[in-house]
Amino acid sequence: MPDRPYTLLSCGMSIDGYLGSASPRRLELSNDADFDRVDAVRASCDAIMVGATTVRLDNPRLLVRSQTRRDARAARGVPPSPIKVTVTERLDLDPRADFFTVGDIEKLVYCATPRHAEPE
Ligand SMILES: NC(=O)c1ccc[n+]([C@@H]2O[C@H](COP(=O)([O-])OP(=O)(O)OC[C@H]3O[C@@H](n4cnc5c(N)ncnc54)[C@H](OP(=O)(O)O)[C@@H]3O)[C@@H](O)[C@H]2O)c1
């Protein structure tokens, strides 16, 4: 791996090229082996980013599942799971979402400056 910051894109894709469905219900394209591969990728990263729609519809925890991998991260002196990151224009995010409430992990929400500047 290069000795400078880089971004990985990890996704499951259907054989006909879809990442998700048009329905609001979460479409699970991965099997247990792939979820474990994703967990290993996640454990290797400093931060993980999903879009705000994924936070709203899928309500992901974004935590490393494997205790062995969490322990390995702890031995490297980093938090058990990567920092959680999302991007939003509308700022329509529920503070009760698992993104915010599950895991004692740093969270970052990036939003467009004009929206951020609006009064509550
Ligand atoms: N198959 C897989 O492995 C897998 C895994 C995860 C997700 N998915 C699917 O992949 C698709 C994409 O998911 P995703 O997590 O990458 O993205 P996403 O959640 O669909 O992100 C879209 C949201 O990002 C925000 N956004 C977009 N452009 C922006 C900008 N320029 N500035 C600020 N915010 C911006 C907007 O949030 P606001 O509406 O809040 O403004 C927009 O609604 C979804 O259909 C998801 O279900 C598939």
Protein architecture, described:
The protein has a domain at 47-111. It has a three-stranded parallel β-sheet. The protein is globular. 8% of the residues are buried. Helix 4 links the parallel strand 2 and strand 3 (107-111). The protein has helices spanning 32-43, 52-58, 67-75, 98-101, 113-117, and strands at 47-51, 83-88, 107-111. It has five helices and three strands. The mean pLDDT is 91. Helix content is 31%, strand content 13%. It has 120 residues and is an alpha/beta fold. The chain binds NADP nicotinamide-adenine-dinucleotide phosphate (NAP).
Q: Can you summarize this structure?
A:
The chain is of the alpha/beta class.
Features:
binds NADP nicotinamide-adenine-dinucleotide phosphate, alpha/beta, 120 residues, three-stranded parallel sheet, 3 strands
Write down the Rg: 16 Å
Let me know the largest β-sheet.
3 strands, parallel
Q: In percent, how helical is the residue content?
A: 25-40%
Strand content: 5-15%
Euclidean distance between termini CA atoms: 43 Å
Write out the distinct hetero groups bound to the structure.
NADP nicotinamide-adenine-dinucleotide phosphate
Number of strands: 3
Query: Strand order across the biggest sheet?
Result: 1-2-3
The outline comes out as globular
Strand-pairing-aware structural class: alpha/beta
